[in-house]
């Protein structure tokens, strides 16, 4: 086991053992609340998955390392002058979106550009209005911050026609350039890596026997793809059972999550051992419901966020308050990378091709859970830009 939180071993062992006794060989079909509701599923399989578990433990050990040197670009065009960037945010209540925006602001100050952030408020109409406003400002570039570009296809087409460079942050499933939609590049970790390591942490942490609740936002293609990949990886271990898939749109998280958590606790009781959410913010909203039900902050259920590295998530992890781990995006680094990618676009150069590695933050890391950024990126980008 990789965590060092002070969970009571005897209680945890008894609980997981009771889960195993409740298991059956029935295949899981899942339950996605809001669209369908099936019969209660068993929590854990009878025999775990020793081979898969060993592989998961090795992967988790690697991902917990914090001594990762800078592996990004060390050369590129010097800073272009007089540029302006508009960051269109899906919603600034999403910690990942806001963290990347702050990174863009920080990097823009260094390179000498102007930045404006427009908050889409998390609604289709709000995001479309924000994109329309951004295009009307005729900036040098626009960041599509955490939403599907197809939802603003008309505005994106106008930006393309006007020669405004478009760069996504978590806008499409894969990092790198995109032609449909037309993005110079998309900055993100590989969703496959994030999904896989999140599921592997559960497999490793549970010794291959877990009853899991998965929380996602199916309205965001990126998030939906991530949760689908998590499901696939969890299914690689026969001792893991996916109890429920909860579809809670991020803008509704604060109102819906406590209610859904209370319902799940009543429904699954001791069979629920682990949770994984596509964003840390769900566990901030879940904490009051867990607390009201008398659940210990140190778990179970043991909760992992498959993104984005909200500062409050690190506090919950280190204080053992209803979150055990997160797979944080290097948000500040990604903001700096966005600015560097724009500089390459303005200079007629190709994108850098850099994709940050995945990391798992837990209380058991050498310095506890903390913001994740590979060292050396600020110095590297300043040198590239001549700043």
How would you characterize this protein structure?
It is built from twelve helices and 13 strands. It is an alpha/beta fold. Among the domains are: 84-189 and 331-347 and 374-385, Rossmann fold (3-Layer(aba) Sandwich), CATH 3.40.50.2300; 192-326, 3-Layer(aba) Sandwich (Rossmann fold). α9 (281-292) links the parallel β10 and β11 (302-305).
Short description:
This protein is of the alpha/beta class and 387 residues long. It has twelve helices and 13 strands.
In DSSP terms (H or I, runs of 4 or more residues), the helix count works out at 12
Helix and strand content put the structural class at alpha/beta
Main pleated sheet: 7 strands, mixed
Q: Quote the average pLDDT.
A: 87
Would you identify the CATH architecture of the domain at 84-189 and 331-347 and 374-385? 3-Layer(aba) Sandwich
CATH H-level superfamily of the domain at 84-189 and 331-347 and 374-385:
Response regulator
Taken as a percent bin, the fraction of beta residues is 15-25%
Low-confidence stretches: 1-46
- What is the strand arrangement across the widest sheet? 1-9-8-10-11-12-13
- How helical, in percent, are the residues? 40-55%
Name the helix and strand elements from N-terminus to C-terminus, one letter apiece: HEHEHEHEHEEEHEHEHEHEHEHEH
Number of strands: 13
End-to-end distance, in Å? 45 Å
Overall outline:
globular
| CATH top level assignment of the domain at 84-189 and 331-347 and 374-385 | Alpha Beta
Q: Radius of gyration over alpha carbons?
A: 21 Å
* CATH fold label of the domain at 84-189 and 331-347 and 374-385: Rossmann fold
Signal peptide: 1-25
Keywords: Signal
Region (Disordered): 33-52
Protein name: Ribose transport system substrate-binding protein
């Amino acid at each position: 086991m990789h965590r060092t939180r002070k969970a009571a071993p005897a209680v945890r062992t008894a609980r997981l053992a009771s889960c195993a006794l409740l298991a059956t060989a029935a295949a899981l079909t899942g339950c996605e609340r809001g669209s369908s509701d099936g019969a209660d599923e068993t929590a854990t399989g009878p025999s775990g998955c020793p081979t898969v578990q060993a592989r998961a433990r090795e992967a988790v050990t690697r991902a917990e390392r914090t001594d990762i040197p800078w592996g990004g670009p060390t050369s590129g065009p010097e800073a272009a002058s007089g540029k302006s960037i508009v960051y269109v945010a899906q919603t600034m209540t999403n910690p990942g979106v806001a963290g990347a925006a702050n990174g863009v602001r920080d990097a823009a100050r260094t390179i000498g550009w102007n930045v404006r952030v427009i908050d889409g408020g998390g609604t289709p109409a709000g995001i479309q209005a924000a994109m329309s406003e951004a295009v009307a400002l005729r900036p040098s570039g626009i960041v599509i911050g955490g939403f599907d570009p197809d939802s603003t296809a008309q505005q994106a087409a106008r930006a393309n026609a006007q020669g405004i460079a478009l760069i996504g942050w978590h806008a499409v499933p894969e990092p790198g350039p995109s032609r449909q939609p037309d993005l110079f590049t998309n900055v993100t970790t590989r969703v496959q890596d994030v999904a896989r390591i999140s599921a592997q942490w559960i497999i490793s942490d549970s010794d291959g026997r877990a009853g899991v609740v998965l929380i996602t936002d199916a309205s965001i293609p990126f998030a939906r793809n991530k949760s689908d990949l998590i499901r696939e990886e969890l299914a690689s271990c026969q001792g893991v059972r996916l109890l429920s898939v909860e579809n809670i749109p991020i803008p509704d998280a604060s109102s819906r999550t406590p209610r859904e958590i209370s319902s799940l606790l009543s429904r699954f009781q001791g069979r629920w051992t682990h949770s994984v959410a596509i964003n840390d913010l769900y566990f901030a909203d879940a904490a009051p419901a867990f607390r009201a039900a008398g659940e210990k902050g140190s778990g179970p259920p043991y909760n992992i966020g498959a993104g984005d590295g909200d500062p409050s998530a690190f506090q919950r992890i280190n204080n053992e308050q209803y979150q055990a781990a997160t797979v944080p995006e290097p948000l500040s680094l990604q903001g700096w990378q966005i600015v560097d990618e724009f500089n390459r676009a303005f200079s007629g150069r190709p994108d850098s091709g850099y994709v940050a590695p995945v990391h798992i933050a837990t209380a058991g890391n050498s310095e506890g859970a903390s913001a994740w950024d590979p060292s050396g990126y600020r110095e590297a980008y300043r040198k590239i830009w001549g700043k």
